[in-house]
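To the structural biology subgroup,

Please find below the input and predicted structure for Tetratricopeptide TPR4, which we are adding to the shared reference set this quarter. The sequence is reproduced verbatim from the submission form. If anyone notices a discrepancy with their own records, reply to this email rather than editing the shared folder directly, so we keep one authoritative version.
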Amino acid sequence: MHDEYNGQNPALTELRERLKGGMARMRLNQTDLAKRAGLGRTTVSEALSPAKPAPSPETVAALARALQLSVEELRELRRSAAEETRDGVRSVPGRPIGKWDPHDLEVHPAGPTDTASGPGRSGARTMPGYVQREHDRVMAQVVKDAAAGRSGAVVLVGGSSTGKTRACWEAVQPLAERGWRLWHPFDPTRAQNALQDLPRVAPHTVVWLNEAQHYLGNRSAGEQIAAAVHQLLVTAECAPVLVLGTLWPEYASRYTALPAPGEEDPHSRVRELLAGRTLTVPEAFDAPALAAAAALAESGDRLLDDALSRAGTDGQVTQDLAGAPELLNCYRHATPAAAAILEAAMDARRLGVGLHLPQAFLTDAATDYLTDTDYDHLSDDWAEQVFAELAALVHGKQAPLRRTTPRTRRRPPAPSPAVHGPAPSTAGPVFRLADYLEQHGRTSRRHLCPPASFWHAAHTHLTDPDDLGNLVRAAEDRHRMQWAHSLRHRAADHGNIGAFHHLAAMQEQAGDREGAEAMARQAAADHDNTSVLLDLARMREKAGNREGAEELLRQAADHGDTNPLYHLARMREKAGDSEGAKVFAGQAADHGNSDALYLLARMREEDAGDLKGAEALLRQAADHDNTRALVDLAYMREEAGDSEAAEALLWQADDLGNTHALGCLARLRGRAGDREGAEALAWEAADLDDTGPLYDLARMREEAGDQAGAEALARQAADRGNSGILVHLARMREKAGDRESAETMARQAAADHDNTTALLDLAVIRERAGDREGAEAPLRLAADLGNSDALYRLARMRELAGDSEGAKVFAGQAADHGNSDALYWLAGMREKAGDLKGAEALVRQAADHGNDNALCSLVLLREEAGDREGAEALARQAADHGSTGALWHLVLLREEAGDREGAEALARQGANLGSPDVLSDLAWMREEAGDREGAEALARQAADHGSTHALPRLEEKPRIFTRLWPYGLDPDGTPTTSW
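Predicted structure (tokenized):
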């Protein structure tokens, strides 16, 4: 039987749903439809019956015309249904958008639930009318593009309960009418489901990644998920698909932040995926949105009318609708025991514990949040009463703390080494804190360090290695070193590899080599991770203990990891010990490490000139699919005159995925004189984002005097979206003295391809050569094309030439285009002229455009003018947007002026705005001034905020905590005794 409702044939399900939808829209029964379509009633009945096979293409076309539906789209569904029938079971993720309840997609509920509900349903819930805002209009265009066949993605970034998920739901409604599906990956976990099923997503599917941090931020799978989503978006066979996600700002900032030099880059693929695809959702309705909401309320929308009565002034309508104020009231008016449980949950989430909080942990953690009096009044069943109290629903159908049941696995885990199963389950019930209370806790409690019961309960009850690792860092950031040490041991016991690394390194540095080795062996044996052994080996090698390093690396190799041996070979080579390098590379090669074979081959060629031996080793590496070895072997074959063998090796490397092999082939053909073949291969390489061969060909033609050929190649590349070669040729012409041709090519790159880089480059080259007049010409061209930086450069050049009036003209034009540097420069000119009021107006404009220097200057101007209140307001505004420079300068001014209380107050304000480093800076200054008591008070506040490991503005700052409290602090802030 062909029953599409068993999930076996979603295309056939969708085809029949659309036919039935058309009948409902036109109010036709099967008899009426048969007459309109010119078909027999039995034919129509079978076409609509789930117990019958797919109707014929002719029947589908007749029904589509009768129902005024797209014949082409329904025939395509029929073809897909037929393919699925032939291929057997081939289900695809998701179901029709119209079959989803928005609340099942995590749209925050609002208002009462209808009492009538069927089995398995939570009841029909009324949603308030929807108010379109700017982000909705941008999303609508992305959805329109998807409907037209172009895949796209949008991630909405905004605070809790700002309407992100509802915006996504409203955005996809036009696609529901076109028969699109929607897939929300969540079972057995969000990350596992996404990683497993993303490759199976079919065209015309919305991928729903609500709370995308659970996918993209997953420690083991986040990068893979980002790569899989990117692959889905760029794969033509999958198009069109639409990926929608939501994120809180702190997660978006974390994923898009560039790592400091030398640090790991854990979110590189996520950052690439989010680039150009995020859209900010404002915290509050602006005036037009409030007016639109009021109009809906006046027309009878009771929910909006009720929300506007409370949120009409601050504009936080969505938060009100989601129940945020009631949640906050529940917390503020909770019994002492309930408030203690909530605060323990808030602290757990803000310090990095996962969503599901064990009841046993919360119960034990809460005790020190209570006063002695409240603790003494606890009844025997106090915990049971509190959890019942906090489970009560508030306006918006949310509970402050609700019990959750983590989903169990329904299929065997995939054999992928990158996706680990869930952490060992914690005995007993688990609870989840309401989103709004979680975010409220992150701000209202950021200045507090949790009490001792919190840390003890975490050590006793938590088992997730990532949760424990996060708490280790949180304890260290707050200088609670004894708890950090204990939790690190607990984290290692549960498989946190970072904890193993740290503990082993500590033991090694303390001289306990046996303990360090035991720790490293435990990580390898119990958790299949040899990286701790590798780290210890590096430490011993660096200390000159080669024998000890070798022993550890052999242990790692015994666990199947040959990379340590290879790395030691590289270390020996860099140290000049080529013989030692060969020994370790040979051992790694004996274990099948192709990189080691490659290293040995290079050493044979460079040290002994043994080309034949090197080639033999490269062939061994190539046999292990080492594509770099294949490319090197190809070069050796070419040098030996065997171009045919070289080309065959490069094609083999290309087949194995070496992204540079095509480029090497192009260069090989070019050197052989095969101009046409070289160009064809260069274009293929360019299609794979390797434009190096095109640059090389253009340069070769230019250097050979074939300027026309070089230009033709550059123009073709620009026409295909790569104008960089035009820019490159323009630079070459300029340096060769052909200024006219260079300017022509730069103008073409700018005018035809919106790339003004070449024009700016020409200006720089001419200015460095002392030709300021010549430099102005390309800058004028760039300015005419809307590049405000060019206008600002012109202004600075005129200033250097002594033409202050001309400089002002160009700076003014740049400022009119929103160039903040030009605004700031003009402000300086006005200040020099004595126009302080005009200078301040321009500085404010520059600050509004994100110029931090301008904001600092404006703060100082206000302070110098005696407007302390205005200066503070501006500094707070800057700190609230992540720029603490102005606040720091203001603190410094107050401190130097002897206003210690004012300096402290400002530093605390900065900490409350998320910049606690200002407190630790001030503490350092107090210590330097000999005020140890004042330094301790400020440093303790900074520690409670978690800033002891923040990036220092003052080099000595991190050491102040160790100097003041060498053994750390207890949770209550008292110095820890020796331990």
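Summary notes: Residues 10-26 form the longest helix (17 residues). The domain at 99-111+131-258+266-283 is CATH 3.40.50.300 (Rossmann fold).

Regards,
Lab coordination
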